[in-house]
Structures are given as structure tokens and as C-alpha cells.
Design brief:
single chain; 502 residues; alpha/beta; TIM Barrel; nine-stranded parallel beta sheet; two-stranded antiparallel ribbon; 16 helices; disordered N terminus; binds 2-acetamido-2-deoxy-beta-D-glucopyranose
Length: 502
């Protein structure tokens, strides 16, 4: 009896001390894309805590990154796991290849690490027009083989297949969503693919980018790209479709897809939004104010659960992206490295209201390199002939996308501009002394050269996280990644020396 009372007392004490443990999850939880193409990735355990602290309970990975997957084990976060386009052909070519992929990248993480994988996203925007049909024939067979492999692995009840597609797989001849249909060159393929997903409990995933509409067309009506603020008059560009008024491009775009699906008798397929967001740098329309405006409108809709005229319930929406990634390809544009709601280190870029008036909160426990920067020497001439080569070199191995016109560092004078490039290289090289040695043009300073919107960043000390990380199983890969990076950097530094010697 006394023991039982004591146990009860302890339980009550625990409940009082840790109320969060007993609090129910928010009804409308959030989902995000977690990309890992950063030179100094935010450690997995810190990223998972960042997700949880901000109410994200679903995450999408572009590949089976072991570090991310291990950190997601037993986290309560559901995972959509990507199978990259470059594996489509081999997985389409043999069931055995699909089985190997599932065993190594899905089964292992589910059973050994307790990762709650719910979807395999086969390919990433494989029907994008710019791929010129390269992945078209492999996609459906790859989906079928992955499905067969999931069945064989005994995972088919829990893990379903999907294909994330770009919004250019459908269109509307007269601009009205109700006229939506699939792009003619892939219409047959779309019908077969969606039919297969529908028959196997899968979902269709669609990526919608109002920012790219604006980026691609200088005449695109700006206010139509955003969700209307409550009480504001509808955009002049709103589309009247029968008795429905479409006031923003997201609703119109999503319903164009739904109309296309209904036209082919596929209206029963669940549709999720795989990517949507707004970048904060690297283009004149990419800044914190615009991103906040777009993402707050989006989050408000998610929290309210308010869908579109054709699908009144908001689907799962994976915001793009959780974090900035300074080593992504800039082929799409300089903005590509700046999609994060959070900076590379998990600090918020702007305020966002979540459910119940809560604000987003920063990552905890991040360790940084020392507070020092590499800058152009005061007594060096800004017209020194060696500068152009040195800056070009620095920017080849680090991220200078903030220096472009209209970007956060686009207004620096010539000297600060050079300093910015030097510092990016120095930080990318983990502040090695030899990385601030641009032909005697550079010097290390402890005075922060940041000015206005332009931040001279200090990178995450991935080495210190490696030494102190609590998850020993994650250590080998981190060590591997940072040592291969040092190898690249040693080459870069050797190149730097030769470049400057001649
Ligand atoms: C950065 O990207 C390049 C090009 O994709 C790649 O070769 C390199 O390994 C990446 N570096 C890191 C540290 O991931
Ligand atoms: C997944 O599994 C395949 C084996 O089919 C393997 O080659 C690959 O490296 C694994 N990891 C990723 C990230 O795809
Ligand atoms: C700043 O640096 C970038 C990258 O090297 C260059 O494209 C740009 O023209 C420079 N701007 C100024 C004002 O020097
Ligand atoms: C570097 O420049 C400073 C000042 O311009 C000069 O005093 C110094 O001798 C130079 N060092 C080398 C190694 O050229």
C-alpha cells in the first residue's frame, strides 16, 4: 500500500515536473524537407530536436542519409524517404536491385534503428520537362519493383510508395483549374502511374512553387503568388472559375491537378504537397520579408486545416526547406542554397506563428568555430591584380551566392566584397590558417565585418560535435564526411598556393 502510494506520488511529481511528456500533440502538425547538402551540416540529433521543438512530426529526406536516419530512430517523427533519380534505371531493371535497396535503406533503419518510415518517394520530379524524358520509362517499373520489394520485406502495410512530381506534369488550356489535364506527352504514363499508386495504397506527391512562377516571369502578378491576408481584397489576378474565385496560385495550381485526376477517374488518390516554400537570398524576390509573408500564409492554412475549393481539407504539406544548404547546385539559380525556414545552424531567419500563437524556436546546443574572420588587409590595394583570381578561387570552393545583385551582400563596396569571398573560403575550410593566405592580401580579424543585411557567418564546428556527440553509431560517417571534405580542401589549398605563386 505504502509502496503503491509512493509510486503514485512519484508519478504525480513526474507529471508536474515534466508536463510536456503528458501533453497531447497538436492536431495539425507540420512536415518539412530535410536536405543534407551542407558543408557544415547541423548534427542529426540537434536537427531532430529542432523538428520536435517546432511541432514537425513528418520529415522528407532526399536520400537514405545514414546520419539523418539514425538520428530519426525512436523520435516519433514519420519519414518519407527518397530514392534518387540516378538509381531509377537500376531499380527499374531488376527486382533484385529494388530488394537490395529496400533491405539496405529501409528494412535496416526500421528494424535496427526504429525509424518510422511511412513512404518511399521513388525518384524526384522525374517527369520534369527539362529532363527531356530521361527518366520517363524507368519511373513506373521502379515504383512497381520497390512495391514488390516492400511486400517481400514484410513492410507493405506500413510503408507505401509515392512519386514526387513537379507541377509541370499538368496544365490548363484556358487557365481555369476546372480545365486541368495532364501534360499531353505524359498523359498515358500519368494515368498508369496514379492507377498503380491508388491500387497499392500509395499517394501522389506534388511540388508547387509560387516563387518560381515569379522568378520565371517578370510580369507574374506578385500578390497572386502569396496567400491573401485576412480581410484584404482579392488579387487583381484572381481567376473566376464557374462560381469559385481563385485568389492565389497555390489553390489554383493544386485544383488544376485535382481536376486532371478527376477527369481520368482518379479523384480518389490522396495528394500530398512534397515541396513548397520561399527562399531568402540569391534573388531580388528572395528575402526574409517575402519568405515570412508566404510561409506565414502557408502555416496559417496548415494550422487551420483549410484546403482548396476542390479538396477542402489541407493535405500533408512538406515545407521546403527546414535548413539552408550551402553546397547545393546553383543550376536552378543562386536562391537554391537559401530555402531554409531556419539558417544553416538552425536559428530562425524570421518569426513564424505556429498553432496556438507559439513562435518557432531555434536549435539548441550548436557549437561554432571561433569568432574570427578572414578579410582583405587594410593596406592591400583593392585594385591589386591578384584579387580577381583569389576571389574566383575562394568562391569556387565556398558559397558566394549572397554577393549577387539584389542579394543580402549585393550592396557591399569592392573591398568588403572581396573580404566576404575570402571569409567564406576561410570558414568553409574550418578556419585553417592556411585558408586565409591569399597572396598576402588577407588577414584574420576578431572584429565582425558584418554590415546591414550582410552576415559574415561563422560555421558550425562539426569537429567538436564529433568529439562530444552522444551517438557513437553516427560517428564513423561524420568522420568520413569531414575527412573527405578535408581532402577536397587540401587540394583547394594546394591549388590556392599554386594559383598565387604564378
Ligand atoms: C559539395 O558538392 C560537390 C559537388 O556536388 C561534391 O563533390 C562535394 O563532395 C560536396 N562537399 C561536401 C562536403 O559535401
Ligand atoms: C541504398 O542501397 C543501395 C543498394 O541497393 C546502396 O548502393 C546505396 O548506397 C544505399 N544508400 C543510399 C543513400 O541510397
Ligand atoms: C562582388 O563580388 C562578386 C563575386 O566575385 C562579383 O560578381 C560582383 O561584381 C562584385 N561586386 C562589387 C561591387 O565589387
Ligand atoms: C605582406 O604585406 C605587408 C604590408 O603590405 C608587408 O609588410 C609584408 O612584408 C608582406 N609580406 C610578404 C610575405 O610579402
Amino acid at each position: 500500500m505504502a509502496a503503491a502510494l509512493r509510486a503514485l506520488a512519484v508519478l504525480l511529481w513526474v507529471a508536474a515536473a515534466y508536463p510536456v511528456v503528458f501533453r497531447a500533440r497538436p492536431v495539425q502538425a507540420l512536415a518539412a524537407n530535410w536536405g543534407t547538402r551542407a558543408l557544415h551540416p547541423l548534427p542529426g540529433d540537434i536537427t531532430v530536436r529542432l523538428l520536435r521543438d517546432n511541432g514537425f512530426d513528418k520529415v522528407k529526406l532526399f536520400e537514405a542519409d545514414p546520419n539523418a536516419l539514425r538520428a530519426l530512430g525512436h523520435s516519433g517523427i514519420q519519414v518519407m524517404l527518397g530514392l534518387p533519380n540516378d538509381l531509377l534505371a537500376s531499380v527499374a531493371g531488376s527486382v533484385n536491385a529494388a530488394e537490395q535497396w529496400v533491405i539496405q535503406n529501409v528494412s535496416t533503419y526500421v528494424s535496427r534503428y526504429g525509424v518510422d518510415i511511412r513512404y518511399v518517394a521513388v525518384g524526384n520530379e522525374p517527369f520534369l520537362k527539362s529532363y527531356k524524358g530521361k527518366f520517363e520509362s524507368a519511373t513506373l517499373p521502379a515504383v512497381q519493383n520497390v512495391q514488390a520489394a516492400l511486400v517481400k520485406a514484410g513492410l507493405a502495410r506500413q510503408v507505401h510508395v509515392t512519386v514526387p512530381l513537379n507541377a509541370d506534369v499538368y496544365e490548363s488550356g484556358d487557365g481555369k483549374p476546372s480545365s486541368g489535364d495532364f501534360r499531353p506527352d505524359i498523359a498515358g504514363l500519368m494515368v498508369s502511374l496514379v492507377r498503380f499508386l491508388l491500387d497499392n495504397g500509395g499517394v501522389l506527391t506534388i511540388n508547387i512553387y509560387p516563387f518560381l512562377s515569379l522568378y520565371a516571369d517578370a510580369n507574374f502578378p506578385v500578390d497572386y503568388a502569396y496567400f491573401p491576408s485576412p480581410g484584404a481584397p482579392p488579387s487583381q489576378a484572381s481567376v473566376q472559375d464557374g462560381n469559385v474565385l481563385y485568389t492565389n496560385v497555390f489553390d489554383a495550381n493544386y485544383d488544376t491537378l485535382i481536376a486532371a485526376l478527376e477527369k481520368h477517374g482518379l479523384g480518389a488518390i490522396p495528394v500530398v504537397v512534397g515541396e513548397i516554400g520561399w527562399p531568402t537570398d540569391g534573388d531580388k524576390n528572395a528575402n526574409a520579408a517575402n519568405a515570412q509573408r508566404f510561409n506565414q500564409g502557408l502555416f496559417d492554412r496548415i494550422v487551420a486545416g483549410k484546403g482548396t475549393p476542390r479538396r477542402p481539407t489541407m493535405p500533408d504539406v512538406y515545407v521546403f526547406a527546414l535548413l539552408d544548404e550551402d553546397n547545393k547546385s546553383v543550376d536552378p539559380g543562386n536562391f537554391e542554397r537559401h530555402w531554409g525556414v531556419f539558417n544553416y545552424d538552425g536559428s530562425p531567419k524570421y518569426q513564424l506563428r505556429l498553432a496556438a500563437g507559439r513562435s518557432i524556436v531555434p536549435a539548441k546546443g550548436v557549437r561554432y568555430l571561433s569568432k574570427q574572420w578572414c578579410v582583405l588587409r587594410q593596406d592591400a590595394s583593392a585594385t591589386d591584380p591578384a584579387i580577381a583570381g583569389a576571389v574566383g578561387y575562394a568562391c569556387q570552393y565556398s558559397d558566394c551566392t549572397s554577393l549577387g545583385a539584389g542579394s543580402s551582400c549585393g550592396n557591399l563596396d569592392a573591398r568588403a566584397n572581396v573580404s566576404y569571398a575570402f571569409n567564406q573560403f576561410f570558414q568553409a575550410a574550418n578556419q585553417q590558417k592556411s585558408a586565409c593566405n591569399f597572396n598576402n592580401l588577407s588577414v584574420i580579424t576578431t572584429t565582425d565585418p558584418s554590415q546591414g543585411t550582410c552576415r559574415f557567418e561563422i560555421m558550425i564546428d562539426t569537429g567538436r560535435h564529433e568529439l562530444t556527440g552522444k551517438s557513437p553509431s553516427a560517428a564513423p560517417r561524420v568522420a568520413l564526411a569531414s575527412s573527405s571534405w578535408s581532402a577536397v580542401l587540401v587540394l583547394a589549398l594546394v591549388g590556392l598556393t599554386t594559383l598565387l605563386a604564378c
